């Protein structure tokens, strides 16, 4: 058992017969130092049981006896690592350490719009994978799929639940988002969810007489995108303009381009009619009514 240093050169360090149950350390002492570089590679032959998540000391020196930059490449052969685990190296206080673990586990949690251009989205890091989570948060954009490079917004470190407040979003627009978490062993993205920002409350409609028993109503979107839908209400009766121009008890919803300049028919002669409009986003969340026009 124990660790035997089998080769040390400018390129590779080999550790043979490492038994994770009772392996001894390779100690470095003296006035100088063993200086490592990122270009070195390390091969560990494990003759014990497969390594579980944790930290394993390969070279112990103390102080600055093990110096330089931890090698970027490490292979654990023989009985290797536990299922789903990977390995990395670190130099800490003169010691070369083999860290074994996995990428963190993270869940995306439903969010909600807080305004026309803001929203709160959520996540939960349920496991750090055996290595501290150094970055967590959400990624988002208006098309699917979302990757780690899309609108990356950090919300702290470590495990547990977190929230991210998004701002400067587009009005009445769908956003896809995913929670993420990063540790030494990799990056994990949660499942993809979506939110809609709220629509702007429409401006007063444009109303004009057409004949003694009809008039026209034109929606004023107030900078909402073209996909936003609108319902037009006549305030005296409480009825809504229907798609055929009649008045009825249920709201009819259409985009502004579909409503166009709608002729409302079947009205009484010499009667004043007042109209107001409300909007809804793609998630069918409605605004209040805007200003009226007669």
Let me know the largest β-sheet. 5 strands, antiparallel
Quick one: overall form?
A: rod-shaped
Which class do the helix and strand fractions yield? mainly beta
Q: Count the E strands.
A: 26
Number of helical segments? 1
- SSE string: EEEEEEEEEEEEEEEEEEEEEEEEHEE
Mean pLDDT score, rounded? 90
CA-atom Rg in angstroms: 32 Å
The residue ranges in which pLDDT falls below 50 over 5 or more consecutive positions are: 1-5
Strand % is over 45%
Query: Helix coverage percent of residues?
Result: under 10%
Distance between the terminal alpha carbons, to the nearest Å? Answer: 92 Å
Note down, in words, how this protein is organized.
The protein has 294 residues and is mostly beta strands. The protein is 1% helix and 49% strand. It is built from 1 helix and 26 strands. The protein has one helix spanning 256-259, and strands spanning 4-8, 12-18, 26-27, 34-36, 41-46, 54-60, 66-68, 73-78, 86-92, 95-101, 105-113, 119-127, 135-141, 153-154, 160-166, 174-183, 186-189, 193-196, 203-211, 214-220, 229-234, 240-241, 247-248, 254-255, 261-264, 275-280. Strands 13, 14, 16, 17 and 18 form a 5-stranded antiparallel beta sheet that branches. The radius of gyration is 32 Å and the shape is rod-shaped. It starts with a strand and ends in a 14-residue tail after the last strand.
Topology readout:
Blueprint: E1 4-8, E2 12-18, E3 26-27, E4 34-36, E5 41-46, E6 54-60, E7 66-68, E8 73-78, E9 86-92, E10 95-101, E11 105-113, E12 119-127, E13 135-141, E14 153-154, E15 160-166, E16 174-183, E17 186-189, E18 193-196, E19 203-211, E20 214-220, E21 229-234, E22 240-241, E23 247-248, E24 254-255, H1 256-259, E25 261-264, E26 275-280
Parallel strand pairs: 2-5, 3-6, 4-7, 5-8
Antiparallel strand pairs: 1-2, 6-10, 9-10, 11-12, 12-15, 13-14, 13-16, 16-17, 16-18, 19-20, 20-25, 21-24, 21-26, 22-23
């Amino acid at each position: 058992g124990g660790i035997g240093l089998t080769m040390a050169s400018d390129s590779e360090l080999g550790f043979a017969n490492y038994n994770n149950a009772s392996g001894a350390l390779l100690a470095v002492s003296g006035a100088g130092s063993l200086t490592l570089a990122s270009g070195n590679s390390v091969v560990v032959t494990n003759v014990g049981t497969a390594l579980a998540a944790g930290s394993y000391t390969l070279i112990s020196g103390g102080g600055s006896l093990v110096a330089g930059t931890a090698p970027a490449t490490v292979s654990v052969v023989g009985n290797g690592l536990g299922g789903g685990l990977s390995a990395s190296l670190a130099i800490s206080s003169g010691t070369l350490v083999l860290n074994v673990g996995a990428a963190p586990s993270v869940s995306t949690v439903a969010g909600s719009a807080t305004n026309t251009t803001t929203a709160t989205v959520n996540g939960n890091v349920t496991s750090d994978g055996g290595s501290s989570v150094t970055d967590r948060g959400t990624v988002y954009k208006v098309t699917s799929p979302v990757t780690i490079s899309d609108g990356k917004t950090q919300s702290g470190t470590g495990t547990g639940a977190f929230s991210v407040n998004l701002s400067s979003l587009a009005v009445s627009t769908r956003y896809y988002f995913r929670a993420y978490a990063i540790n030494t062993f990799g990056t994990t993205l949660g499942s993809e969810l979506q939110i809609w920002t709220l629509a702007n409350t429409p401006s007063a409609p444009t109303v004009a007489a057409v004949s003694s028993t009809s008039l026209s109503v034109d929606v004023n979107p107030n900078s909402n995108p073209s996909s936003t839908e609108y319902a037009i209400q006549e305030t005296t009766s409480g009825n809504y303009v229907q798609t055929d121009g009649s008045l009825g008890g249920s709201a009819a919803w259409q985009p502004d381009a579909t409503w166009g300049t709608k002729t409302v028919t079947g009205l009484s002669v010499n009667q004043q009619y007042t109209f107001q409009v409300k909007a809804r986003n793609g998630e069918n969340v409605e605004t209040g009514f805007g200003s009226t026009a007669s």
